[in-house]
Amino acid sequence: MVQRNLTLLLPLVLGTALAVGSPGYPQSRIPSFENEHDRQVARFGEVLRILGEEYVDEGKADYDTLTRAAIEGMLESLDPYSQYLTEEKFTQLQEQTRQEFGGIGIRIERRDDHITVVSPIANTPGERAGILSGDQIVSVDGTETSGYSTRRLSELLRGNPGSEVSITLYRPMKDETIEVNVVREIIKLESVSDGRIMEEGIGYVRINRFGQRTGAEFKETLDRLEAEGMTGLVIDLRNNPGGLLSAAVDVAGRFFDRGEVVVYTQGRDRESRNEIKARTSGRNKTYPLAVLINSGSASAAEIVAGALKDSRRAIIVGETSFGKGSVQRIEALRDGAALRYTSARYYTPGGVTLHEKGVEPDIEITVPTEDAGLLLRQRNRAHLAPGEFAELYGLEPIDDIQLQAAINSLKELFLRAEIEDSAPDS
Q: Is residue 12 part of a domain?
């Protein structure tokens, strides 16, 4: 009985010795450094070496995997916006910022368990190849797409300009399967869309995100609407996730005088304050503005809304915005990957921080949860006639109560101005 107990006890004692580093199992020691940075780098290197050489599952402990996991964990511990970008993710981010990529030029969505073409983009390879709205993508270069997400399928469709992709389509309208070969080109995405004149001369423009060409696109749309006799403007920033700070300044700056502060950023030191000023003059833009926001409006979208609200240049309509008041800096790494980290907070001209608070609307209009998804789909399919929308989705379009509230707020300003103009002198 004693012998049996000793046999059971021995592995436990050895396991304890291994865990605590008893004599016979030497402990590594980090050399002393005068510089704290060097000491911590040595500490990390020691852990990396031990795991890379000794961890039981070699496949999980190669140096690249361990280093990447450490970097990702380091950034995730800071805030939700700092992250490690692999070379692939960094390339995708650059494409979004440039508003262009190599592809065929179609908009897709998942509908009834099928990846379906919403519409081909005008004057792109997809349109010229005869791809139509409603076509279902069955396979790409022989790879069946059943169960694919739209993002995964997009990765298959994108590629180097000049390369060819073979796509098998099912066309429900004719109950036929067809195959098209499409040569990829550079596809340029618009960030400013749906610019039009609505009732009583009120203009409408939607900004989907802020990229390198957003400022120029916005100016072009404004010039056209002003030439058409626009009397007021609604800027729709709902579900705009943000983008480039410079693009936000280009948009908001259209309604500031040259040299006025549109936004400023502040890093960890007082000396890091950076005032960003309007580069153009908005002195001649005297028509009233309304800006639409919701909880999906973030970052650069909040800079625009916050600056126009803070300067009393626009009425803000909708729901409180997301509350992302931080500036991310991107540093390219030597291996093609990149580091995105928070380097500053931004503030409205009056010194208001929107971080974790958001922009509060002047006129609060909340869309019921059950209607929010349908309204977003309607806005994304603005090119479709109401009858086409109902036929494709089996749903009748619903009223956009936030947009109507913005229009009504501008009409009230028109009426107020008329009353003031007609008042007798005293």
A: no
- How many residues in total does the chain contain? 426
Cα 100 to Cα 132, 183, 188, 207, 215, distances in angstroms: 22, 16, 4, 16, 16
Residue from 135, 236, 250, 310 carrying the catalytic annotation: 310
299 is catalytic: yes
pLDDT in tens, 291-300: 999 999 999 9
Q: What is the mean pLDDT of residues 189-218?
A: 93
Report residue 61 as tokens.
């402990």
Active site residue 324: yes
- For residues 162 and 196, state if they share a domain: no
- Is the predicted pLDDT of residue 142 greater than 70, yes or no? yes
Per annotation, catalytic residue among 299, 321, 326, 409: 299
Residues 270, 132, single domain; the answer is no
* Whether residue 183 is found in the same domain as residue 197: no
Question: Which residue has tokens 């549109």?
Answer: 262
Between the alpha carbon of residue 23 and those of residues 16, 144, 180, 365, the distances in Å are: 12, 60, 71, 70
381 and 237 in one domain? yes
Sign, Cα dihedral of 161, 167, 171, 174: positive
- Residue 180 near residue 129, CB atoms below 8 Å: yes
The string of pLDDT tens digits covering residues 156-177 is 999 999 999 999 999 988 899 9
Dist CA 242 CA 213 (whole Å): 14
Kindly report the backbone phi and psi dihedral angles of residue 27, in degrees, each rounded to the nearest multiple of 5, phi listed first. -95, 140
Q: How far is CA 398 from CA 207, 214, 390, 403, in A?
A: 21, 29, 11, 12
Q: Domain span at residue 275?
A: 192-418
357-407: pLDDT as tens digits: 999 999 999 998 888 888 887 887 776 676 777 776 777 888 999 999 999
Contact 293, 207 (CB under 8 A): no
List, in sequence order, the alpha helices (H) in 210-288.
214-227, 245-252
Residue 82 domain-assigned? no
Active site residue 425: no
**Burial of residue 52 (number of CB atoms within 10 Å: 0-12, 13-18, 19+):** middle
pLDDT at 128 over 70: yes
Domain co-membership, 278 together with 407: yes
Per-residue pLDDT, averaged over 178-196, amounts to 91
Identify the active-site residue in 82, 324, 326, 400. Answer: 324
